Amino acid sequence: MAILLLISDMDPEEWDEAITRLAQQRRVRVWPYLEDPAEIEYAIVWKPPRGALQGFPNLRAIFSMGAGVDHLVGDPDLPDVPIVRFVADDLTEQMSEYVLHHVLLHHRRHLEYAEQQARKVWNPLPQPTAREVRVGVMGCGVLGSAAAAKLGAIGFQTRGWSRTRKDIPGVTTYAGSDEFLTFLGGTDILVCLLPLTPQTRGLLGGKLIAAMAPDGALPGRVIINAGRGGLQNEAEILAALEDGTLWAASLDVFETEPLPESSPLWRHPRVVVTPHNAAVSRPEPLFDYVLDQIQRFERGEGLDNVVDVQRGY
């Protein structure tokens, strides 16, 4: 039996060495170069074409190459087998680094200093301490909980919101729709790490931004989105920047990727654009994770981080 590797939007040359190493443990077939679909027991996938996972009669599990699975669960022809999210220390650490970096970038008013540097202006700006700034993490799964805990550890007033309540050391947590506006109303810098579902699509827009705290220690509201591009309404984000409702933004994901050259987000002086690299799945940790899951599964111990297809995460 064999593992199917189906990678879209990635450079396969970057994976050659790791695939060779994986093949030392299990037979590997790279889509679409298949001889016998019946030999495929497991599939490691990223953005598979719709219907591409049909026709494997012995498929036992699908492993997503990322923490998100929106690239999978919208496929009506998806086989009825467990789908497993990639959850590993490597990915969690990368996301925490991204979140801390961008929170601190806005907290220390770096965009304003960069603009002053371009004009050769020497002008120290008022600087609140971390304990005066309220950071809210929206989406407290594995990645969000880790980032929130680290923000709290360096002194920020940290709060987290998720569909169900989480217990995170040093973090005030909120849960469900009844506590959502309370969470937003006490947030100066909002970090979005929600999964993309029909309920969250377009959520990060004008109405949500206006519900954030209007009286923070920073010059204005800040949003950081390292979740999914479909979570944000870019036209409303730009409008909020222009009318002053929103002070600044760091965006790692976009409605269309790569971000079109025509997008005003590229040129906005208070927007940081990064190319969907907040947390990148690297071959070695990913394959180690998959092989460990397969071995445990075949010993009858079950799979970790299985997706609820109805909820979308």
TrEMBL record:
InterPro entries: D-isomer_DH_NAD-bd, NAD(P)-bd_dom_sf. Residues 102-278 form the D-isomer specific 2-hydroxyacid dehydrogenase NAD-binding domain. The keyword Oxidoreductase applies. It holds the Pfam family 2-Hacid_dh_C. GO terms for molecular function: NAD binding; oxidoreductase activity. Keywords: NAD, Oxidoreductase, Pyruvate. SUPFAM superfamilies: Formate/glycerate dehydrogenase catalytic domain-like, NAD(P)-binding Rossmann-fold domains. The keyword Protease does not apply. This is Glyoxylate/hydroxypyruvate reductase A. It comes from Dichotomicrobium thermohalophilum.
